[in-house]
Amino acid sequence: MAQSLQVYKQRRQTVRRKRTVASQIQSVVLAFVVLVVLLLVARYVTVLVTSMREEPVFVAPKTIYLPQRELEHSMAVAEFQNAAATPATVPQLTTESLLADSPALPAIPNVDFTPVENEAIVSEADALFGQSGLMGALGELSSQASSVSFLGIREEASRFVIVIDVSTSVVNTVNASGTPMARIQQEMRELITNLNANTLFNLVLHSRNHSAFQQQLVPATVANKEAAIAWVDRRFPSPPDYAFRASDSRQVGEMRNGIIGIMDFVFDAQPDVIFMMSDAGYFTTLVDGGQRPVTTRELNDLVNRRQRDLAENTRIHFIHFPDPRNIQDGRIGGDMRRITTSNNGQFRAISN
Hints:
Blueprint lengths: L1 H50 L14 H20 L33 H14 L1 H6 L6 E5 L2 E5 L1 E7 L2 H9 L4 H13 L6 E7 L3 E3 L5 E2 L2 H14 L23 H9 L5 E6 L4 E3 L5 E3 L2 H12 L7 E6 L15 H7 L4 E3 L3
Parallel strand pairs: 3-4, 3-7, 7-10, 10-11
Antiparallel strand pairs: 1-2, 4-5, 4-6, 8-9
Helix pairs in contact: 6-7, 8-9
């Protein structure tokens, strides 16, 4: 009997030890599982918080075109050079009223005075101005306004750009209207001639590609006006074929060339006034090789976007030679009147 009780106790102790070991193992496994779950939750919470953060937004101020300050500087230097190159005139001296009873003085030889212009002297003067700090003050001088007329539209401003469409369709339309292309060329020559010395200007001839007299506005000095007139005579289409070739273009979106890129280039100069002449049948070559007409909305959106960069809106004048074919394919045409009037400009239609 005693031996049976002893065996029973040993079995019971063995069972208790096994249960204790199993409980300990179970606790360790449960703790490990809980730890793994916590790590996974912490990882996904961290990723979720990171993914919900907003990307930083960078805001830039309106574009500042530093090259235009260099133009004002060039204008001030040109004014100084013109003033320095002008010879002083000395009136003939007389002593008759002071010494009426005195014997006459010997006659003064009549010698013509011809000033010698030396570009080196002017360059040295520019350097002295720069060293003294006065060149910065000259750079602050405002440009001088000019009153001009182009194909019946009069305007007064200090910064001009003339944009002339010389594509084949426009040449045919202009000639058919009774106004020969030679008249347009002469109007450009007269406008350039009538600019004051400190007025800034540029010229652009275009079809789909364009050719500009300069890449930025330049002062209307005698030399620049002579160069501009020579450029017009050389680049303006002439009979018999009125051929015009240009390679400059600016891509905007899907449009490889055309009036959108041309006007974007023109607005870089921040002009006060833009004169435009065309039949407004603007087409563009697309990046994929196709072509289509430019719509009124596309040109209007580009103009409005660039106007927002300016302290004062540019006035846009348009001389319209309507296409007698009256093609309705989405081209701008007579809707240029809306763009012109909304930008404080004048619209003039010329037809036969």
